[in-house]
Amino acid sequence: MELRHLRYFVAVAEEKNFTRAAKRLFIAQPPLSRQIQQLEEELGVDLIEKGSRPLKLTEAGEFFQAHASELLEKVGALKTMTQRVGKVERTLSIGFVASTLYGLLPEIVRRFRTRYTHVQVSFHEMTTMEQIKALKEGRIDVGFGRVKAEDASVRRIVLREERLIVALPIGHALSDSDEPIRLLDLQNDVLLVYPKAPRPSFADQVLEVFRAHGIQPRNVLEVRELQIALGLVAAGEGVSVVPESVQGMKRKDVFYRTLADRQAISPVMFSVRNLDKSEELVNMLAVIYEIYDEVGIPHVKESL
Ligand code: BEZ
User: How many A from CA of 108 to the centre of ligand 1?
Assistant: First the structure.
């Protein structure tokens, strides 16, 4: 069995159609059918139910697809990481969600750059779900996100749990009070959540915090990203629940208030390819923990 057989079978299983799979693989259909037949002969089991339209996998086929996909992802990661190890110049591509820019990300990267001058650092703004895809495709080496997305080929470390706060427009009935605000007090406001897509996203995390408190916001408006949510808050369109660090981005037309609900938190996550323990990542993690210790941010130290 060759890797080619795995790639071919996964394409057929995902497309549920030989013609589409052949097109995707840039080969003709007859050789594709022959390869799948060869694979079934070698395994001595049927992977596809004979005569099924649309194409249906047997139980063995489902099992083979799941494990073959995992193996192919591992091969992809192995290729990226080997290229990384062999490269003379050292690089670190960082994927980040916008809110981390208002937190410690700039300071972390400044210190990393000062200490490891030979490493070329690049930045790519993307959602947590986009980071998972970019890690697997080798477009980034580390992702800083917020959603606990499960993926067999990605390792996630929760760096810390950050408190959520609420952004209110000038003149909002709650903006004068110094008391922490209860989620319940926001129930009748238009709640601006982001990003709209891809899901699950920080938007779902915020909605889940409301749900966990038994509160159903009356009116939810999904927007593309953080800046749009804050701009609309400033315009008096509604309120938005954001990570505490967003306060770092001062706007004179938006008030930030703490939330009384202590469960209103969002994790800051460090995501890397499963097998990647490269020096750059180990050093980056050490810099993060060093800064947390200096600033007094509670955290649990994990190693790669
Ligand atoms: C933080 O704010 O905790 C953080 C942000 C980006 C990267 C690492 C940590």
Answer: 8
Q: What is the pLDDT of residues 94-123, one digit of tens each?
A: 999 999 999 899 999 999 999 999 999 999
Rg of the chain's alpha carbons, rounded to an integer? 24
Distance 263 CA to ligand 1 centre (A): 20
Most informative mutation of 104, 140, 270, 302 for ligand 1 (most atoms within 8 A of CB): 104
What is the fold of 3-83? Answer: Arc Repressor Mutant, subunit A (1.10.10)
CATH superfamily of the domain spanning 86-159+268-295: Periplasmic binding protein-like II (3.40.190.10)
Indicate yes or no: pTM above 0.90. Answer: no
Tracing tokens 């600033």 back to the chain, one arrives at: 295
* Residue 111 DSSP code: H
Burial 85-98 (b: 16+ CB within 10 A, else e): eeeeeeebbbbbbb
Q: How many CA atoms lie within 13 A of 243 on its CB side?
A: 26
- Interval between CA 110 and ligand 1 midpoint (Å): 13
At 140-155, the pLDDT tens digits run: 999 999 998 888 889 9
pLDDT digits (tens, 9 = 90+) for 257-291: 999 998 899 999 999 998 889 999 999 999 999 99
C-alpha 121 to ligand 1 mean position (Å): 16
What is the 149 CA–ligand 1 centroid distance (Å)?
18
> Which residue's CA is minimally distant from atom 4 of ligand 1?
104
Pocket of ligand 1 (CB under 6 A): 100, 103-105, 108, 144, 159-160, 245, 268, 288
